[in-house]
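The step that takes the researchers longest sounds almost clerical: writing a folded protein down as plain text. Below is the pair of lines this work produces for a single protein:

——
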Amino acid sequence: MKRNIKIATAVTAGALAIGGVLAVGPVTAGTGGGALAAAQTTSQSTLMNAQYQGRHHGGDTDGIRQHDGTCGTTALAEQGTLTATQKATLAGMAEEEKLAHDLYTAFAARYDVRVFERIAASETQHLTAVRTLLDRYDVTDPTAGKPAGEFTDPTVQATYDRLLKQGEGNLTGALTTGRTVETDDIAALTKALSGLTSQDARQVYTHLLAASERHLTAFEHWIADK
């Protein structure tokens, strides 16, 4: 049976391709991607985003819209069908979102730079959105039960370890890592949208792509100001 689940439009804050985790602060991935957990996590993250203040670049706070997504809800488009390859891509999106979140959370703890904390909060929302799709299409969530910095896919794990090390040396390295993550996210999302006919998946991916582009702009601003 097709379902029409409501998700927070904070989904519009998206960023993909190198992960995000599901709650602000130390987080362990949930086990399902169910609607209740999604609503709770998104509500918390939306509230936090609405409270953020900071320096401005071209009208956006740190290159990110102050409410990186809107408050309230929007109906997710009707469920369609996904091929086996598209389902595998969707599962990979979850790991990549978690990866981004875990990296930014680690950098936020190391450097007194708000951009990491803010984008990590957005990645929380993105993973929630991806989990909604995983639940709809009965795809196993590879991030379920995984603590920060741990991943199911060995390739994703190796990427995380490499990028974490790259960003631990200094702030410039961390900001450059963020730029790399968002650039890869944009490429992954663009590829995932190619040939995709499922409207709900297209809706989520498109929102995540727009947000990833904003996040990339944020990192580029910070790098230019260094």
Observations:
- The first strand starts at residue 6 and ends at 8.
